[in-house]
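PROTEIN DESIGN WORKSHEET
SECTION A - STRUCTURE
LENGTH: 258
C-ALPHA COORDINATES:
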Protein backbone atom coordinates (compact mmCIF):
# COMPACT_ATOMS: atom_id res chain seq x y z
CA UNK A 1 0.00 0.00 0.00
CA UNK A 2 1.26 3.47 -0.89
CA UNK A 3 0.81 6.03 1.86
CA UNK A 4 -1.19 9.10 0.90
CA UNK A 5 -2.63 12.13 2.64
CA UNK A 6 -5.49 12.34 0.15
CA UNK A 7 -8.81 11.01 1.36
CA UNK A 8 -10.06 9.32 -1.77
CA UNK A 9 -11.84 6.10 -2.67
CA UNK A 10 -11.06 6.27 -6.38
CA UNK A 11 -10.82 2.77 -7.81
CA UNK A 12 -12.25 1.11 -4.71
CA UNK A 13 -15.43 -0.88 -4.23
CA UNK A 14 -17.09 -0.23 -0.87
CA UNK A 15 -19.81 -2.48 0.53
CA UNK A 16 -22.11 -0.89 3.12
CA UNK A 17 -24.65 -2.78 5.23
CA UNK A 18 -27.63 -0.98 6.71
CA UNK A 19 -27.37 1.39 3.75
CA UNK A 20 -31.04 2.18 3.25
CA UNK A 21 -31.28 5.02 5.77
CA UNK A 22 -29.55 7.04 8.47
CA UNK A 23 -25.81 6.73 8.93
CA UNK A 24 -25.49 3.94 6.36
CA UNK A 25 -27.22 6.01 3.71
CA UNK A 26 -24.98 8.99 4.49
CA UNK A 27 -21.88 6.78 4.23
CA UNK A 28 -23.08 5.46 0.87
CA UNK A 29 -23.44 9.00 -0.52
CA UNK A 30 -20.08 10.08 0.91
CA UNK A 31 -18.27 7.00 -0.43
CA UNK A 32 -19.66 7.57 -3.90
CA UNK A 33 -18.70 11.25 -3.79
CA UNK A 34 -15.17 10.18 -2.77
CA UNK A 35 -14.91 8.14 -5.97
CA UNK A 36 -15.96 4.64 -4.91
CA UNK A 37 -18.24 2.16 -6.54
CA UNK A 38 -20.75 1.32 -3.83
CA UNK A 39 -22.63 -1.83 -2.92
CA UNK A 40 -25.71 -1.16 -0.78
CA UNK A 41 -27.20 -3.82 1.46
CA UNK A 42 -30.13 -3.93 3.87
CA UNK A 43 -33.22 -6.05 4.44
CA UNK A 44 -35.64 -4.27 2.07
CA UNK A 45 -34.95 -3.94 -1.65
CA UNK A 46 -37.32 -1.00 -2.32
CA UNK A 47 -35.54 1.15 0.26
CA UNK A 48 -32.18 0.27 -1.26
CA UNK A 49 -33.43 1.06 -4.76
CA UNK A 50 -34.44 4.54 -3.60
CA UNK A 51 -30.98 5.26 -2.20
CA UNK A 52 -29.24 3.77 -5.22
CA UNK A 53 -31.29 5.95 -7.57
CA UNK A 54 -30.41 9.06 -5.59
CA UNK A 55 -26.71 8.20 -5.59
CA UNK A 56 -26.27 7.19 -9.23
CA UNK A 57 -29.32 7.09 -11.50
CA UNK A 58 -27.23 5.46 -14.23
CA UNK A 59 -26.49 2.46 -11.99
CA UNK A 60 -22.94 2.28 -13.30
CA UNK A 61 -21.26 2.75 -9.93
CA UNK A 62 -23.91 1.44 -7.55
CA UNK A 63 -25.43 -1.94 -6.76
CA UNK A 64 -28.39 -2.42 -4.44
CA UNK A 65 -28.82 -5.94 -3.08
CA UNK A 66 -31.16 -6.98 -0.27
CA UNK A 67 -29.44 -9.09 2.37
CA UNK A 68 -30.24 -10.52 5.80
CA UNK A 69 -26.84 -10.29 7.48
CA UNK A 70 -27.79 -12.97 9.99
CA UNK A 71 -27.96 -15.58 7.21
CA UNK A 72 -24.76 -16.95 5.70
CA UNK A 73 -26.34 -17.79 2.34
CA UNK A 74 -27.62 -14.22 1.97
CA UNK A 75 -24.15 -12.84 2.72
CA UNK A 76 -22.45 -15.12 0.20
CA UNK A 77 -25.01 -14.10 -2.44
CA UNK A 78 -24.36 -10.42 -1.66
CA UNK A 79 -20.63 -10.78 -2.27
CA UNK A 80 -21.23 -12.88 -5.37
CA UNK A 81 -23.40 -10.10 -6.82
CA UNK A 82 -20.86 -7.41 -5.91
CA UNK A 83 -17.97 -9.30 -7.48
CA UNK A 84 -20.00 -10.17 -10.57
CA UNK A 85 -20.70 -6.47 -11.20
CA UNK A 86 -17.52 -4.79 -9.96
CA UNK A 87 -14.95 -7.60 -9.86
CA UNK A 88 -13.93 -7.05 -6.24
CA UNK A 89 -14.76 -5.55 -2.85
CA UNK A 90 -12.03 -3.45 -1.22
CA UNK A 91 -13.71 -2.07 1.90
CA UNK A 92 -16.55 -3.16 4.15
CA UNK A 93 -18.64 -0.80 6.27
CA UNK A 94 -20.57 -2.87 8.82
CA UNK A 95 -23.47 -0.62 9.78
CA UNK A 96 -26.67 -2.70 9.96
CA UNK A 97 -28.10 -2.49 13.48
CA UNK A 98 -31.24 -2.88 15.54
CA UNK A 99 -32.41 -1.90 19.01
CA UNK A 100 -35.86 -3.44 19.56
CA UNK A 101 -35.96 -2.87 23.31
CA UNK A 102 -35.64 0.31 25.37
CA UNK A 103 -35.81 -0.11 29.13
CA UNK A 104 -34.08 -1.73 32.13
CA UNK A 105 -31.66 -4.36 30.88
CA UNK A 106 -32.93 -7.21 33.07
CA UNK A 107 -36.46 -6.76 31.70
CA UNK A 108 -35.40 -7.37 28.10
CA UNK A 109 -37.24 -10.34 26.59
CA UNK A 110 -35.34 -13.34 25.25
CA UNK A 111 -36.63 -12.58 21.76
CA UNK A 112 -35.41 -8.96 21.82
CA UNK A 113 -32.07 -10.05 23.31
CA UNK A 114 -31.50 -12.64 20.58
CA UNK A 115 -32.56 -10.26 17.80
CA UNK A 116 -30.21 -7.52 18.99
CA UNK A 117 -27.22 -9.87 19.07
CA UNK A 118 -28.19 -11.50 15.76
CA UNK A 119 -28.06 -8.23 13.85
CA UNK A 120 -25.55 -6.13 15.77
CA UNK A 121 -22.89 -8.73 16.55
CA UNK A 122 -23.47 -11.98 14.71
CA UNK A 123 -24.26 -10.15 11.47
CA UNK A 124 -21.14 -7.99 11.71
CA UNK A 125 -18.98 -11.05 12.31
CA UNK A 126 -20.51 -13.09 9.47
CA UNK A 127 -20.18 -10.28 6.92
CA UNK A 128 -16.61 -9.50 8.01
CA UNK A 129 -15.67 -13.17 7.77
CA UNK A 130 -17.01 -13.41 4.22
CA UNK A 131 -15.22 -10.20 3.23
CA UNK A 132 -11.94 -11.49 4.65
CA UNK A 133 -12.33 -14.79 2.81
CA UNK A 134 -12.96 -13.04 -0.50
CA UNK A 135 -10.10 -10.59 0.05
CA UNK A 136 -7.62 -13.34 0.87
CA UNK A 137 -8.53 -15.04 -2.39
CA UNK A 138 -7.06 -11.97 -4.09
CA UNK A 139 -3.54 -12.69 -2.88
CA UNK A 140 -1.46 -9.70 -1.82
CA UNK A 141 -4.46 -7.39 -1.66
CA UNK A 142 -5.05 -5.06 1.28
CA UNK A 143 -8.45 -3.98 2.55
CA UNK A 144 -10.34 -2.16 5.25
CA UNK A 145 -13.21 -3.04 7.58
CA UNK A 146 -15.07 -0.27 9.39
CA UNK A 147 -17.49 -1.37 12.11
CA UNK A 148 -20.04 1.20 13.20
CA UNK A 149 -20.27 0.67 16.96
CA UNK A 150 -21.45 3.23 19.54
CA UNK A 151 -20.36 5.06 22.66
CA UNK A 152 -23.00 2.83 24.30
CA UNK A 153 -20.43 0.04 23.97
CA UNK A 154 -17.78 1.98 25.87
CA UNK A 155 -19.55 2.70 29.16
CA UNK A 156 -22.83 2.13 30.98
CA UNK A 157 -25.83 2.43 28.66
CA UNK A 158 -28.92 2.94 30.85
CA UNK A 159 -32.14 1.78 29.17
CA UNK A 160 -30.06 0.48 26.24
CA UNK A 161 -28.09 -2.17 28.10
CA UNK A 162 -28.41 -5.04 25.65
CA UNK A 163 -27.71 -2.75 22.70
CA UNK A 164 -24.63 -1.51 24.57
CA UNK A 165 -23.50 -5.11 25.14
CA UNK A 166 -23.60 -5.79 21.42
CA UNK A 167 -21.61 -2.69 20.63
CA UNK A 168 -19.00 -3.55 23.27
CA UNK A 169 -18.68 -6.90 21.51
CA UNK A 170 -18.21 -5.11 18.19
CA UNK A 171 -15.38 -3.03 19.64
CA UNK A 172 -13.73 -6.17 21.03
CA UNK A 173 -14.16 -7.94 17.68
CA UNK A 174 -12.60 -4.94 15.94
CA UNK A 175 -9.52 -5.02 18.15
CA UNK A 176 -8.97 -8.78 17.86
CA UNK A 177 -9.50 -8.84 14.10
CA UNK A 178 -7.08 -5.93 13.72
CA UNK A 179 -4.45 -7.84 15.69
CA UNK A 180 -4.94 -11.09 13.80
CA UNK A 181 -5.27 -9.60 10.31
CA UNK A 182 -2.62 -6.90 10.39
CA UNK A 183 0.00 -9.09 8.75
CA UNK A 184 -2.45 -9.73 5.91
CA UNK A 185 -2.75 -6.02 5.16
CA UNK A 186 -6.36 -5.93 6.33
CA UNK A 187 -7.11 -3.03 8.65
CA UNK A 188 -10.06 -3.09 11.06
CA UNK A 189 -11.38 -0.03 12.87
CA UNK A 190 -14.59 1.07 14.55
CA UNK A 191 -16.58 4.29 14.71
CA UNK A 192 -18.43 5.08 17.94
CA UNK A 193 -21.10 7.71 17.35
CA UNK A 194 -22.90 9.52 20.11
CA UNK A 195 -26.51 10.68 19.73
CA UNK A 196 -27.22 11.11 16.01
CA UNK A 197 -30.57 12.07 14.53
CA UNK A 198 -31.81 9.01 12.65
CA UNK A 199 -35.02 7.00 12.61
CA UNK A 200 -33.08 4.40 14.58
CA UNK A 201 -32.47 6.91 17.39
CA UNK A 202 -35.90 8.55 17.21
CA UNK A 203 -36.88 7.32 20.68
CA UNK A 204 -33.97 9.30 22.12
CA UNK A 205 -33.98 12.39 19.90
CA UNK A 206 -37.75 12.89 20.15
CA UNK A 207 -37.88 12.43 23.93
CA UNK A 208 -37.30 15.93 25.36
CA UNK A 209 -36.11 14.66 28.75
CA UNK A 210 -33.55 12.22 27.36
CA UNK A 211 -32.49 14.54 24.54
CA UNK A 212 -31.93 17.48 26.86
CA UNK A 213 -29.97 15.34 29.32
CA UNK A 214 -27.63 14.17 26.57
CA UNK A 215 -27.25 17.57 24.90
CA UNK A 216 -26.74 19.21 28.29
CA UNK A 217 -23.66 17.00 28.81
CA UNK A 218 -22.36 17.53 25.26
CA UNK A 219 -19.76 20.32 24.85
CA UNK A 220 -20.99 21.14 21.34
CA UNK A 221 -24.50 21.54 22.76
CA UNK A 222 -26.39 19.51 20.16
CA UNK A 223 -26.89 16.04 18.71
CA UNK A 224 -25.24 14.90 15.50
CA UNK A 225 -26.38 14.35 11.92
CA UNK A 226 -25.57 11.29 9.76
CA UNK A 227 -23.20 13.12 7.35
CA UNK A 228 -21.06 14.05 10.36
CA UNK A 229 -20.31 10.35 10.83
CA UNK A 230 -19.89 9.52 7.15
CA UNK A 231 -16.61 11.39 6.70
CA UNK A 232 -14.89 9.20 9.27
CA UNK A 233 -16.04 6.06 7.46
CA UNK A 234 -14.62 7.35 4.18
CA UNK A 235 -11.32 8.19 5.88
CA UNK A 236 -11.03 4.74 7.49
CA UNK A 237 -11.90 2.99 4.23
CA UNK A 238 -9.35 5.02 2.29
CA UNK A 239 -5.58 4.67 2.05
CA UNK A 240 -5.23 7.95 3.96
CA UNK A 241 -5.69 5.88 7.13
CA UNK A 242 -3.16 3.25 6.05
CA UNK A 243 -1.34 3.24 9.44
CA UNK A 244 -4.50 3.03 11.55
CA UNK A 245 -5.99 -0.23 12.78
CA UNK A 246 -7.67 -1.60 15.90
CA UNK A 247 -9.03 1.78 16.92
CA UNK A 248 -12.47 2.95 18.08
CA UNK A 249 -12.97 6.50 16.80
CA UNK A 250 -15.43 8.42 18.97
CA UNK A 251 -17.65 11.01 17.26
CA UNK A 252 -20.03 12.32 19.91
CA UNK A 253 -19.77 16.10 20.13
CA UNK A 254 -17.58 15.66 23.19
CA UNK A 255 -20.16 13.78 25.28
CA UNK A 256 -17.69 11.18 26.57
CA UNK A 257 -15.18 13.73 27.83
CA UNK A 258 -17.73 15.15 30.29
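SECTION B - SEQUENCE
RESIDUE ASSIGNMENT:
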Amino acid sequence: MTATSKISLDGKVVLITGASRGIGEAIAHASFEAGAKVVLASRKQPDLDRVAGEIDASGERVLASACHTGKADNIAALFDAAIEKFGQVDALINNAATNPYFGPMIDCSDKAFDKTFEVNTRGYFFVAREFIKRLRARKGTSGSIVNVASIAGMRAAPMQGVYGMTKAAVISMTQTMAYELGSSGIRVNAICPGLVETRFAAALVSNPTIHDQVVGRTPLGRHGQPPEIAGAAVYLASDASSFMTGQAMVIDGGFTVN
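SECTION C - NOTES
The mean pLDDT is 94.
The first helix runs from residue 22 to 33.
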